[in-house]
Specification:
Rossmann fold, 16 strands, about 325 residues, single chain, binds iron/sulfur cluster, alpha/beta, 3 domains, 4-stranded parallel sheet, about 35% helix
Length: about 325
């Protein structure tokens, strides 16, 4: 099915919806802000499948890690429809309700000029064996690039069954030893910057802006800044910390919390654990004013310290950076 410029994989959704026994099921639709424009189309589709009562979550949604539990507790839907991501693969806690994950794919064919530019850049780097990776939404564009490069004689590797997430680059790690380099197909800086933490041999293609670019300079700058923060902390007395636990199913990580506990014990730092659904600047300021810690560790989304709070007036660390603080800083550790 097509909604706007996206292809929606609806088969699982139809299956789930049809299997609900309630005569008029209540459905909560949830999508990231960039995909909320599909709500009208998707809501209309649901009503064609069967008689349903549809609610549209206007809250932010940053991933399949982020199912809106407060809305679920009030609405008690028969089904939550999460749009745009596959089930969060790193979840330690399952959401306490029925969720169907509906993939949508940005339907774009890269322009010939972009394909030629990519091919030229691969040639200039003497890359013949190339891995093409992407988040789920950009998979179609990535497949089209892979097909083109394959037709031009490149050896292509892919991992379509393991889409990139901001905190999950296992496909990059798995393919790194068998390729000369990577093409990451994704919009904006977010995923490209994360991938560049794992490999220096990376080109990024943004299918929304038709732009090919090399994220390694940005990534090196980011890593230098993060390492500097850890080194500075190592050289000062540390007494008190705050550990932030996520209050979304995918962002609540008991195993990471227990790793953090051991690391804190190792350096003799006392700490408190706070919970929060969305960690924003005002929440962080409140937490800082409440507990006056020497530093803060975020165990919910590991991209928050890097992307949102890099400039906070106090060090805000990922669990990986806490490990560097305790064990040494030779190699940058991301995410935990
Ligand atoms: S990077 Fe953050 S928001 Fe994205 S999937 Fe991971 S935990 Fe969720």
């Amino acid at each position: 099915m097509k909604c706007d410029t996206y292809i929606v994989e609806e088969s699982l959704l139809v299956e789930e919806l049809s299997s609900i026994s309630a005569s008029r099921p209540r459905v909560l639709l949830q999508a990231p802000d960039g995909l909320k424009k599909l709500y009208d189309c998707l809501g209309g589709f649901l009503k064609k499948v069967r008689d349903v009562e549809v609610y549209y979550s206007a809250s932010p949604s940053f991933g399949a890690c982020d199912i809106p539990l407060e809305e679920v507790a009030l609405l008690r839907p028969d089904l939550v429809v999460h749009v745009g991501h596959a089930k969060y693969p790193l979840a330690e806690v399952e959401p306490p309700l029925r969720v169907v994950y509906v993939p949508v794919y940005y339907d774009v064919t890269p322009r010939t000029e972009s394909l030629l530019e990519i091919e030229g850049l691969l040639g200039s780097r003497s890359w013949r064996r190339v891995a093409v990776v992407s988040p789920l939404t950009e998979r179609l564009a990535a497949q089209r690039i892979a097909d083109y490069l394959s037709s031009r004689g490149f050896e292509i590797r892919e991992a379509w069954d393991r889409p990139i997430l901001g905190c999950d680059y296992r496909s990059v790690i798995a393919l790194a030893s068998s390729v000369d380099g990577f093409i990451l197909v994704s919009g904006g800086l977010f995923h490209a910057l994360g991938a560049a933490l794992y490999t220096d041999n990376l080109l990024a293609y943004d299918p929304y802006r038709e732009k090919v670019w090399d994220p390694s300079v940005e990534a090196r700058k980011l890593v230098r800044g993060r390492v500097y923060t850890v080194i500075r902390l190592r050289n000062q007395p540390l007494r008190r910390a705050v550990v932030i636990a996520g209050a979304r199913p995918g962002q609540f990580r008991p195993s990471v919390l227990s790793m953090v506990a051991k690391l804190m014990e190792k350096i003799g730092v006392e700490y408190v654990v706070t919970t929060v659904s969305y960690l924003t600047l005002d929440r962080l300021l409140t937490i800082d004013e409440t507990f006056r810690p020497d530093f803060i560790v975020v165990t919910s989304c590991p991209r928050l310290p890097l992307d949102d709070f890099h400039d906070f007036h106090k060090p805000v660390l990922t669990p990986g950076e806490l490990a560097m603080l305790v064990w040494g800083v030779e190699k940058y550790v991301f995410p935990w």
